[in-house]
Design a protein that fits this description.
Elements lengths: L19 H11 L9 H5 L1 H15 L3 H15 L3 H16 L8 H13 L9 H10 L12 E3 L5 E3 L18
Antiparallel strand pairs: 1-2
């Protein structure tokens, strides 16, 4: 007997929510309401990956304060099953952290990493890569001081970023050959 594939259903937006922005906000917070977070078959399927991508795309349309709260909440729920949680983590890594992803978003990925790193049931060996990625993702954040680095001028003279005394500085990091 063939099994019927799981059909993911989005929650119904209450009729009193008429504003397009409010509808997105509602969907961001309730996208996964009808999903059983112990269903490992769906989240591992191609359809599951597409749904997760769609969710992250929706979050990219929301204010960052709401989207970080929403992804944190979903990752917390995903802890109900280690396979579901790790599939969502892997999906988030591919979609939010890959330099080739159109949805790359380190701010959202930091929330995913915080959740994975605080998960007590996860073996420490599985936290090595997320811990490294977390440290990298916290560097050079918008509005924060840049990480200090050493540079070499064409003349051969070396210096450090924080040793420069300038009103402003533009750094072109196109040639990173060592």
């Amino acid at each position: 007997m063939a099994t019927v594939p799981y059909k993911f259903t989005l929650p119904e937006i209450p009729s009193f929510i008429v504003d397009a922005g409010a509808k997105k906000d509602y969907m961001g917070a309730h996208f996964w309401d009808n999903y059983d977070f112990k269903d490992t078959a769906f989240i591992r399927s191609d359809n599951g990956h597409k749904v997760f991508w769609s969710y992250l795309y929706l979050l990219s349309q929301l204010p960052i304060s709401e989207s970080t709260e929403d992804i944190g909440s979903v990752m917390e729920k995903a802890r109900a099953d280690s396979t579901v949680c790790m599939e969502m983590f892997t999906g988030a890594e591919q979609i939010l952290y890959s330099p080739n992803s159109e949805l790359r978003n380190e701010t959202l990925y930091i929330e995913v990493l915080k959740n994975i790193l605080s998960w007590g049931r996860l073996n420490e060996s599985y936290k090595i890569r997320p811990r490294f990625q977390y440290k990298l993702a916290l560097r050079n954040r918008l509005g924060e001081s840049a990480t200090d680095f050493t540079y070499t001028l064409a003349s051969g003279r070396n210096g450090k970023l924080y040793g420069l005394v300038l009103k402003s500085l533009a750094v072109n990091a196109n040639d990173l050959s060592l």
